């Protein structure tokens, strides 16, 4: 019996094992039995018999072991119990698999006249049970789905239901899988299934959400199959098109810009393939809606740029059939109106769309009508360039340049010339807007990309040369960018547009964004890497002699445009050049030690040319610093370079004795290892010792940095400490009379403090200092601390010169600064915080008693400077978050002590600065649970001290108005900084209440006292500005009104004061109204002002009986004035904002 006959007979429930054996042989690639070969050889009747027999086999298996008895994945995974799967279920699954395989092969070999009713019933049966298959049989489920997909592709009877199942499965997989590429391909082949389903049916509604989710997935939007499928979805239903468009609009803000182009392609494909009502819906609902959004959306909207990208894609397809007509039809009702809109931003957005789509016309029109339409649009371009708003003009510049670049060949030459002249001669010099000028130069690059523009541009561009010196940096950046473009496309000689002299002058003085671009522009001219190295040096010397400052800037940025190896080569060739100059000067020693006999630049340079020699040395240092990291990474190159320069540096120091040459030589030495210049170390220290106090920073800065780079900072610290110790007065603090000094002539404490200031001020030297062990820094710390005794001696009446007192005060300040850095470096201990606390206590005990009127002018001045210095240092401690809670509380006690002294008011500005840091530290960090009570107490103390400050200022104004006004002026900035701390807290916090209740009470009392002094009704006036108020109120309100947030806090506290009935006289109500009148000048507080004004009007009705008094009664006049001001405020609040 043949294999075909055996297989046919095995398809029976009595021979099921034989059937399953045949299926195993088919799946075994090594066995020759293959259903794909066997089934085509069967006769038509045999095939029909096979399908009938396999249907009966399938039905028998399902009847014997129905799906209700199957153990699914849920039972298999339930609890810890092991569920045994029966042999019946295993056999049933095998039969289903066999039937699926036979059916799939049968679908492929179906012939035209085959009766496949039984095969269809098999497929339908599988469709009914596929969802009930156990999870462990996922491959079988996939095989069934493939059968349905094949059924759909063959366009067989019953394909709708089977294809729908396959479509749903593919759709679900594409949405859930991370890499759905293969599923996307299958889904794309099944997309026609969707057309067989009515949108309003249950199936249609079931699939809407999964289909819309496809538009969320970048994988769908980017893949070719995904684009094809998503574009197809636009052809399902009109309502679904609207849903798709809304979904995309909602998702655009989350899409990256790169994805917007793919979204645009989907829209375009959908439009190209659509027809009838679908085409109308896509054009009106999608494309035209995008056009309107591109015009009306704010430019800072996250969606605006992506909508523009989508439309840009359409504009770029103008060469395709139908696109021009569509753009003309859809833009016609909206674009021309938008170009004339009153809103400048709408006009600007419309301008970009108009110029991008230019020319907008219908190709079906006659050529004459097209020409007329294009001419109108060209006239519109000129009008847009003259728009009164800079934003529109800038957009028009961009648009015009893009139009000229694209349409140069078709636009009349006269129009091109007129447009370019308008850009270059008018808008490039638009004094009203740097943005417009900037856009001209940025957009010229677009025109220059069209080579046809080069002859005309070469004639017109020289008119722009003065723009290199534009007052706006971004305009200068854009101008140099244009020169770079001219050079790149070879449109003209850039030096004919702007001369080399002007470029170098701007390079010397301009900021890095401009100077870096100029270096890029000139790089090949002065650093021609393709020519010999001697040419590099010649160009370097030429640049130095042309403009030394520009030369330094050029080589400062040269490393950006060439390899580090070229920079090192230039350094070495400059070294050769210097050596030749020295040899020519007759230095035989150097001539014998350097055998590099070169004669380059002999006629140009000489050792006597100090300026050129110094410039070459400076450029050496600049070049070395620019590639220092790269050199350090290549130790072989570093050793070679350092050895070359170390061998000649001593001789350079001997030959070049001028001060300008010494500075770069010292810096050059600092770049070399200390071991390569042993003799120079002692010379540098000797130089530092030999300088005098008051020497310019430039005289010692290089030496200090040199020693730091060599790791010799300890020598500087030791020198400073020795000078300070030698100059400290002998005897203890209680000594009165003349102070004696030991060795004062040899010591230079002022110079030592200048060195210390430089070290602490610069990050590199400061970091170097704090790499020293603490034991090497402590002596300096103690030496600075001892100078406090000299301050006390001076306060006690000892005869000390003013210069020495200044030195002592500086030492006191540097002691605090050093404590801050050391505490930051060693935060584990409180050693240096305790030292600061000791200094604060010393100020309280020894200095504050002299802050009194009984002290002499010298004592008062010194005590004030000492207290202010102490407060400033303590403020810095808190600012860098070095102080802890105990230190903060100690400072508040100190501040209270300062304010209690007779002349403590003189220190109010630094007191406020310190309170600002305390408040910020308390409010900007969330406290631990166990610290909340302590923090609350600190805030109460803080607000009490602030109230005391306000009271002291008010008291000072009453006692001495002139001095009080000076105090108000000096405290204004500090008070503003203090009030800004309110941004760290909530609206009704304890801190807010305490601070603003003090300010509110102070202002009301201050104004009411002024009103009480009025003796004639003519003196009752309405304040027009804050300057019409008394000094204290003037200062407080001026500070408050600088910040809208602070003003709202103040108004909130004033409202609380009114409701609390704390105001009890007509003068105080008048004072409140004065305040509101000043604040109403800003339109930002209408709601708050209206609420307070209504409350005040209700309250002053209690004083209506005053109107019965005589007209010359002050109280009556105040009442009437208050009512008038309130009415003015309420009238302004009721006016609508226009």
Structure description:
The protein is mostly helical and 1138 residues long. The protein has 57 helices and no strands. Helix 49 (908-923) packs antiparallel against helix 50 (932-959). The longest helix has 28 residues, at 932-959. Mean pLDDT is 86; it is low at 74-81, 589-599 and 731-745.
Provide a quick synopsis of the model.
The chain is mostly helical and 1138 residues long. It is 71% helix and 0% strand. The protein is extended.
Distance between the termini: 100 Å
Helix content: over 70%
Strand content: under 5%
Number of strands: 0
Mean pLDDT: 86
Tally of DSSP helical segments: 57
Report Rg. 44 Å
Outline the low-pLDDT stretches: 74-81, 589-599, 731-745
Largest sheet: none
Structural class: mainly alpha
CA-based shape: extended
């Amino acid at each position: 019996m043949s294999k075909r006959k055996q297989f046919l007979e095995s398809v029976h429930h009595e021979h099921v094992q034989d059937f399953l054996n045949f299926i195993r042989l088919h799946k075994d690639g090594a066995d020759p039995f293959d259903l794909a070969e066997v089934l085509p050889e069967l006769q038509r009747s045999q095939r029909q018999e096979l399908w009938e027999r396999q249907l009966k086999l399938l039905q028998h298996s399902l009847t014997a072991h129905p799906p209700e008895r199957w153990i699914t994945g849920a039972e298999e995974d339930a609890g810890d119990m092991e569920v045994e799967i029966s042999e019946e279920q295993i056999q049933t699954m095998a039969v289903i698999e066999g039937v699926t395989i036979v059916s799939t092969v049968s679908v492929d070999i179906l012939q035209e006249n085959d009766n496949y009713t039984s095969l269809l019933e098999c497929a339908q049966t599988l469709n009914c049970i596929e969802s009930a298959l156990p999870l462990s049989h996922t491959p079988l489920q996939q095989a069934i789905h493939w059968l349905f997909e094949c059924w759909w592709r063959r366009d067989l009877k019953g394909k709708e239901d089977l294809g729908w199942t396959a479509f749903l499965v593919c759709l679900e997989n594409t949405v859930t899988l991370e890499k759905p590429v293969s599923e996307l391909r299958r889904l794309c082949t099944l997309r026609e299934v969707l057309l067989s389903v009515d949108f309003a049916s249950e199936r249609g509604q079931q699939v809407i959400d999964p289909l819309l989710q496809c538009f969320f997935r970048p994988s769908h939007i980017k893949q070719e199959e995904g684009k094809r499928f998503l574009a197809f979805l636009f052809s399902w239903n009109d309502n679904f098109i609207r849903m798709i468009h809304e979904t995309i609009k909602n998702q655009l803000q989350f899409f990256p810009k790169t994805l917007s182009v793919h979204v645009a392609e989907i829209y375009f494909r959908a439009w190209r393939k659509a027809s009838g009502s679908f085409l109308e819906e896509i054009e009106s609902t999608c494309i035209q809606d995008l056009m309107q959004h591109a015009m009306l959306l704010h430019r800072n909207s996250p969606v605006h740029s992506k909508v523009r990208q989508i439309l840009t894609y359409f504009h770029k397809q103008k060469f395709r059939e139908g696109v021009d007509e569509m753009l003309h039809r859809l833009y016609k009702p909206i674009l021309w109106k938008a170009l004339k809109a009153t809103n400048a931003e709408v006009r600007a957005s419309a301008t970009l769309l108009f110029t991008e789509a230019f020319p907008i016309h219908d190709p079906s029109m006659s050529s004459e009508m097209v020409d007329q339409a294009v001419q109108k649009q060209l006239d519109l371009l000129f009008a847009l360039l003259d728009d009164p708003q800079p934003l529109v003009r800038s957009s028009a510049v961009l648009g015009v340049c893009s139009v000229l670049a694209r349409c140069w060949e078709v636009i009349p030459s006269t129009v091109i010339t007129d447009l370019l002249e308008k850009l270059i001669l008018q808008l490039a010099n638009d004094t009203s807007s740097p943005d417009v000028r900037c856009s001209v130069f940025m957009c010229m690059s677009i025109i220059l990309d069209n080579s046809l523009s080069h002859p005309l541009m070469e004639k017109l561009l020289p008119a722009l040369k003065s723009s290199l010196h534009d007052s706006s940096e971004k305009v200068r950046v854009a101008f140099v960018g244009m020169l770079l473009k001219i050079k790149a496309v070879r449109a003209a000689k850039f030096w004919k547009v702007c001369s080399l002299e002007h470029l170098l002058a701007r390079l010397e003085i301009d900021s890095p964004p401009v100077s870096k671009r100029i270096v890029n522009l000139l790089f090949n001219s002065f650093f021609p890497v393709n020519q010999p190295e001697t040419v590099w040096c010649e160009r370097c010397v030429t640049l130095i002699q042309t403009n030394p400052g520009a030369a330094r800037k050029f080589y400062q940025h040269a490393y950006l445009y060439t390899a580090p190896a070229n920079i090192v080569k230039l350094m070495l060739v400059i070294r050769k050049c210097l050596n030749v100059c020295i040899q020519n000067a007759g230095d035989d020693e150097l001539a014998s030690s350097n055998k590099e006999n070169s004669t380059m630049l002999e006629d140009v340079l000489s050792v006597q040319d100090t300026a050129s020699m110094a410039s070459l040395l400076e450029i050496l240092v600049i070049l070395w610093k620019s590639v220092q990291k790269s050199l350090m990474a290549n130790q072989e190159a570093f050793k070679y370079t350092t050895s070359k320069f170390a061998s000649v540096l001593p001789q350079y120091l001997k030959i070049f004795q001028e001060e300008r040459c010494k500075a770069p030589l010292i810096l050059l030495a600092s770049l070399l290892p200390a071991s390569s210049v042993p003799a120079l170390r002692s010379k540098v220290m000797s130089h530092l010792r030999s300088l005098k106090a008051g020497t310019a920073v430039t005289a010692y800065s290089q030496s200090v940095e040199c020693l730091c780079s060599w790791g010799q900072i300890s020598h500087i610290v030791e020198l400073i400490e020795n000078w300070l110790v030698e100059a400290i007065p002998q005897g203890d603090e209680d000594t009165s009379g003349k102070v004696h000094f030991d060795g004062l002539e040899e010591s230079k404490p002022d110079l030592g403090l200048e060195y210390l200031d430089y070290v602490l001020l610069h990050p590199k030297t400061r970091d170097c200092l704090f790499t020293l062990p603490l034991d090497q820094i402590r002596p300096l710390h103690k030496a600075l601390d001892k100078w406090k005794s000299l301050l006390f001696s001076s306060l006690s009446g000892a005869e000390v010169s003013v210069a020495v007192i200044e030195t002592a005060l500086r030492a006191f300040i540097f002691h605090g600064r050093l404590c801050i850095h050391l505490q930051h470096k060693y935060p584990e201990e409180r050693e240096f915080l305790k030292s600061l606390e000791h200094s604060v206590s010393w100020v309280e005990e020894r200095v504050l008693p002299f802050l009194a009127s009984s002290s002499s002018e010298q004592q008062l001045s010194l005590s004030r400077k000492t207290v202010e210095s102490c407060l400033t240092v303590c403020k810095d401690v808190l600012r860098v978050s070095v102080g802890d809670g105990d230190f903060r509380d100690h400072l508040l006690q100190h501040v209270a002590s300062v304010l209690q002294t007779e002349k403590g008011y003189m220190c109010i500005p630094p007191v406020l600065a310190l309170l600002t840091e305390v408040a910020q530290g308390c409010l900007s960090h969330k406290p631990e649970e166990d610290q909340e009570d302590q923090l609350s107490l600190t805030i109460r103390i803080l607000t009490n001290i602030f109230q005391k400050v306000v009271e002291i200022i008010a008291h000072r104004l009453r006692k001495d108005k002139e001095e009080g006004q000076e105090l108000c002026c000096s405290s204004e900035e500090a008070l503003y900084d203090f009030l800004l701390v309110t941004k760290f807290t909530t609206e009704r916090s304890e801190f807010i209440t305490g601070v603003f209740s003090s300010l509110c009470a102070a202002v009301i009392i201050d104004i009411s006292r002024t009103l009480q002094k009025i003796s004639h009704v003519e003196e009752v006036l309405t304040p027009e500005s804050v300057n019409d108020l008394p000094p204290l109120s003037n200062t407080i309100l001026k500070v408050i009104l600088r910040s809208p947030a602070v003003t709202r806090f103040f108004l909130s506290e004033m409202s609380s004061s009114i409701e609390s009935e704390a105001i009890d006289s007509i003068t105080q109500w008048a004072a409140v109204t004065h305040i509101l009148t000043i604040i109403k000048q800003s339109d930002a507080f209408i709601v708050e002002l209206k609420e307070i004004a209504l409350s005040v009007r209700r309250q002053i009705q209690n004083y209506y009986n005053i109107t019965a008094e005589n007209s010359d009664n002050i109280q009556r006049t105040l009442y009437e004035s208050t009512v008038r001001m309130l009415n003015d405020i309420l009238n302004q609040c009721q006016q609508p904002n226009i």
